[in-house]
UniProtKB/TrEMBL annotation:
Boundaries of every BioF2-like acetyltransferase domain copy: 184-327
UniProt protein name: GNAT family N-acetyltransferase
Gene3D superfamilies xref list: 3.40.630.30
The organism's place on the tree of life at top rank: Bacteria
Length: 377
């Protein structure tokens, strides 16, 4: 392979990548919403931070085979210190937000995924962007192989990120026949309890930028309601902050809106559960959801997922990505589990290991404090 790479450090250069980046998106069968140009461009607009003691700089790594863009790593080079005198830097993928960006993976054609890791090695050796610490997020096998064969890099920590992907069959009956007994019984209860109380379920699809914006307030309200439910699995209100709502609204105002579908379950014409989804080439990504607690006894979220699966099958969609995080609402459908891993790494010497570990612990304490506040909101 004749590969060259460049590091984009300006917003002008970022915008200039738009056309090639979107062309690359169309060639990725398992494309994630968080890998798209629109998501990343808006993320930088809403979440990059420049303050007195904290400064984010662009460090987008673009890889070309001859003149064709084959991989992109949207990276943020963060300086911690005062003005130009930094005491610490680290490089991380875009998406350091309160879980709005669920997976922060580089975008690459399949044949070039190993080249990305080799480029990480080049960065660690040459310190192209002056990194003292960097985040590596990739499939578990690739990342572990990379670290095993690169003793000059020391991982400070690791975190496994399970992603649940549901493969679809030719028809709903074939799919349902392969489900486990507990979910089959749950589905029967869902539909029978609605029928008994003379509630007619109907799946409504909301598409198009204007229609989505008209219904997004209802979605936010149902998401907030779900967060207040007394359930075994905690669901924070990820859109409690105005900044987070504004980010989603900006996505609906961008080209990304053509990928968005709001799945709404209506009972006798009233919307009682919603889930935001993204059409990603051969895959449907199911994002956050919400429901009216008045109808919780009918398990309306289970019904909504079932109706969405049936719709996806009729549309010949090959896979449904149920998102990350292990809980029964995903595992009960029998999905494939794809494990990604996140490493925080430094160069392997005593001073960097010691300093890096202390800084990492401090950041984790700050992050956990913010999450506790979010859960209490």
């Amino acid at each position: 392979m004749t590969l060259r790479h460049s590091i984009i450090t300006t917003e002008t250069g970022f915008d200039a990548l738009a056309s090639d980046w979107r062309t690359l998106e169309a060639e990725i069968p398992d494309l994630l919403p968080f890998q798209t140009f629109d998501w990343n461009r808006l993320w930088w607009r809403f979440f990059s931070d420049t303050s007195l003691f904290h400064r984010d700089e662009l460090a987008i790594c673009a890889m070309y085979d001859n003149e064709k863009l084959v991989a992109v790593m949207p990276l943020c080079n963060t300086h911690i210190g005062f003005y130009r005198f930094h005491v610490y830097r680290y490089v991380r993928p875009f998406g350091a937000d309160p879980n709005l960006t669920e997976l922060r993976l580089p975008l690459a054609l399949p044949a070039y995924k190993d080249s990305i890791l080799r480029f990480w090695e080049t960065m660690s050796r040459q310190e192209i962007v002056g990194l003292a610490e960097f985040q590596l997020i990739h499939t578990q096998a690739h990342a572990e192989h990379f670290l095993t064969h690169n003793q000059e890099i020391h991982p400070l920590s690791s975190r496994t990120i399970p992603n649940f992907v549901l493969h679809l069959n030719d028809d709903w009956h074939t799919f349902k026949a392969k489900l486990k007994r507990n979910i089959k019984e749950s589905l029967r209860h869902c539909y029978n309890s609605l029928k008994r109380d003379q509630l007619h379920p109907e799946l409504k699809l909301i598409e198009g930028s204007e229609n989505l914006k008209l219904n997004i307030t209802k979605f936010f309200a149902l998401h907030t309601a779900r967060a207040s439910a007394d359930a075994d699995v905690s669901h924070p209100d990820y859109f409690a902050k105005a900044q987070h709502k504004d980010f989603i609204l900006a996505l609906l105002d961008s080209e990304f809106s053509r990928r968005c579908i709001m799945f709404s379950l209506e009972l006798n014409g009233e919307p009682v559960a919603m889930r935001l989804g993204f059409k990603m080439n051969d895959e449907l990504y199911l994002y956050y959801s919400g429901y009216d607690l008045t109808y919780s006894k009918y398990s309306v979220m289970t019904t909504l997922v079932a109706e969405t699966i049936q719709w996806a099958i009729t549309q010949k969609i090959q896979r449904i990505n149920l998102s990350v995080g292990e809980d029964v609402s995903k595992t009960r459908w029998g999905p494939e589990v794809i494990n990604y891993v996140e490493y925080h790494c430094v160069r392997n010497n005593f001073l960097r290991r010691t300093f890096g570990q202390n800084i990492y612990r401090l950041r984790q304490w700050r992050k956990n404090t913010l999450l506790r506040k979010l859960n209490q909101a």
